[in-house]
Amino acid sequence: MDEQLLLKKAQRGDDEAFYQLMENMKEQLYRIALSYLKSEEEALEAVQEVTYRAYINIKKLKKPEFFKTWITRIMINYCIDELKYKKRFTNENFEMKKSSESLPSNSNYDFVEIETLLSRLEKKYQTVIMLKYFHDYKISEIALILNKPEGTIKTWLYKGLEILRIFIGGEDS
Fold first, then answer.
1. In a domain, 143, yes or no
2. N or C: which end of the chain has fewer CB within 10 A?
3. Using alpha carbons only, what angle is made at residue 117 by residues 109 and 111, rounded to the nearest 5 degrees?
4. Which residues of 44-76 are buried (b: 16+ CB within 10 A; e: fewer)?
5. Last residue of a domain, which of 23, 57, 89?
6. Is residue 69 situated within a structural domain?
7. What is the CATH number of the domain that holds 138?
8. What is the pLDDT of residues 137-158, one digit of tens each?
9. Where does 61-149 have alpha helices with state H?
């Protein structure tokens, strides 16, 4: 069934239509949560919480064509809030040690090493790079999700990638 038709039904209270919408999005939402929270258990919890929040607020969504953007934004906000909460209760010395770890000297980085490097970036750069390269969003979609102009997204993407190159040691690449 068409996503917009499902959404209209869900907004009128059709639980089966809402279930189908979430079924279509659950894998993508899970991947986003996992990329932020780094824990399968926390990612599953995030999907549950975002499903609940979407169910409660679905009638507030004015334009059905922005459902994917809307629910992605809810997930990102939830993950950022969770990270802020966890950071408040994390030992500051551990955080300082983690951020000053030396980088591997070779240029063959695996996924975990890339994630470690990404975690050292400012949140805005991290978010844009993750949405673009890990979740295959277009610049225009990222701009909608983050409610920023496309030019800002391009700038953040460029600056974030430049910083990553510096971290890796490939300033000339």
1. yes
2. C
3. 40
4. eebbebbbeebeeebeebeebebbbbbbbebbb
5. 89
6. yes
7. 1.10.10.10
8. 899 999 999 999 999 999 999 9
9. 67-88, 92-99, 111-119, 123-129, 139-146
Is residue 4 in a domain? yes
Instruction: Give the up-direction half-sphere exposure of residue 124: CA atoms within 13 A in the CB hemisphere.
Output: 12
Tokens 């990612």 locate to 43
Amino acid code (one letter) for 90: T
In a domain, 36, yes or no: yes
| Residue 7 to residue 89: CA distance in whole angstroms | 39
Q: Which two tokens stand for residue 114?
A: 């890339």
Q: Report angle CA 30, 86, 147 to the nearest 5 degrees.
A: 55
> Per the structure, how many domains does the chain have?
2
The domain containing residue 171 runs over which residues?
Answer: 102-173
Q: Which amino acid is at 47?
A: V
